[in-house]
Amino acid sequence: MYFISTRGNERVTGAEAIVQGLAKDGGLFVPETFPAVTQEEFRAMAEMNYPDRAAFIIGKYLDELGGDFLKEACAAAYSSFEGADPAPLVRIDEGLYILELFHGPTCAFKDMALTLLPHLLKKSCSLTGVKEDGLILTATSGDTGKAALEGFKDVAGTKVAVFYPDEGVSKMQRLQMCTQDGDNVFVAGVRGNFDDCQRAVKKMFASESFNAELKEKGVRLSSANSINFGRLVPQIAYYFSAYLDLVSSDQIEAGAAVDFAVPTGNFGDILAGWYAKKMGLPVRKLVCASNRNRVLAEFFAKGVYDAKRPFYRTMSPSMDILVSSNLERLLFEVSGRNAALTAERMKELAEKGCYEVTAAEHRALEEDFFAAFASEDDTVEAMYEIFEEYGYPMDTHTGVAMHAANFFREKRDEKDTTPIVVLSTANPYKFPQDVLYALSGNDVKDSFKGVKRLNLLTAMKPPKCLLELRYKPVRFKQTLPADEKKMCAEIVRFAGGEIAPVPPESKK
Fold this sequence. Notes:
Layout: E1 2-5, E2 11-13, H1 14-20, E3 29-31, H2 39-46, H3 50-61, H4 67-78, E4 89-93, E5 96-100, H5 111-114, H6 117-128, E6 133-139, H7 143-152, E7 158-165, H8 171-178, E8 185-191, H9 194-206, H10 208-216, E9 219-222, H11 229-248, E10 258-263, H12 268-278, E11 283-290, H13 295-302, E12 304-306, H14 327-334, H15 339-352, E13 354-356, H16 359-368, E14 369-373, H17 376-390, H18 396-411, E15 420-424, H19 432-440, H20 447-458, H21 464-467, E16 479-481, H22 484-495
Parallel strand pairs: 5-15, 6-7, 6-9, 7-8, 8-16, 10-11, 10-15, 11-14
Antiparallel strand pairs: 1-2, 1-3, 4-5, 12-13
Helix pairs in contact: 1-6, 3-4, 3-11, 11-12, 17-18, 17-19, 19-20
């Protein structure tokens, strides 16, 4: 399959799309066509385990990588997950389910793709004849960074650099990144928000002079953000797997419609669900759940994307985003694949902070999406009620999605019993203080005290990888201004081997 840029000036193979990450014209790569899953294939997938289901779906897009390779890669990637099923579906109540996507090595849904991406990238480099070392450059709102660092640490021929908002991640997220093992990793905080990090990284990808400097050092850029289609495509698989689990457990009949509620920041996770629908999965509505930074909720309500607004730090920090990069892919589709119009809108967003879609495009969006947002109080209430009634603890991002799901169910016809699956994107222990507060009203200042008390309250076992953070030395303490020139300079130094993490004394 070939891929084209949302801004119209490039057509590449799947392997080339993965190696490049971002199109040379600044656009995002999308599949030239959407492959269909036949009823026969659907029945065959029902008998597969999760790695084989993922390999099958990914192979629909990345066929040039080979089916045998994809099976082996998926089996290797998901072998690092806890439990027999990397993405188990949990029944909460009649018609209400939670898809747990946090059983990977970093306890967040980003593991579903980023444990696999190193395999896809290595194979793609081989197919495209790329000889330079790859430098995985990533902006993160908390979870992508750790998952990328963990996935690519000590991978031969690869370096990985992560920028995160210095005051915009939880303590656990910060410790996960700044204590990262590996000789090929670099982490720095940015004195700004995620949008500042993402904006700077995109400029780095687009800078010819910066890329030329890296080339002189035998390095080329690639991305682990969901702007890279190799990050996005594995996420399509768990929508299919969740649906198949509903069918196999006799919760629904094959062909019945299902709704999905997704906590949404950069729009990659929910876009994967829309891609699944385009492939033939019986998805009725995708509930786009926003936190207090409700730019997406208002976009779907009004058809106007307006990033000129106050930025709020919330208890769901991975969603504290005002510029959702993957929305560009959806805009390209609803515009009738009008690349010129998409490019114009992205220019308006960069220069004016806003753009507007047509009435026809807005109606098309409303066909597939329902949007809602949760205040901090709404999030706490949703988390508390689910725990109080069902004994199920959720993280804060899942709490946002649960509130949106409940709001959606209240708005629909009372006779409508369509099941809804809420995507749970992180282990509650990644945000122990906020989760503890939501479930008990107990406010603690120390994250690890929060872990201990949350364990006593819920009896849910804390992940070993998070408990170990308390005593791991912090290797990365650097913070930088939100200035792409200074960020570029540090990356050039890192690429040339001029800087390396120096571990401080271990914590006592």
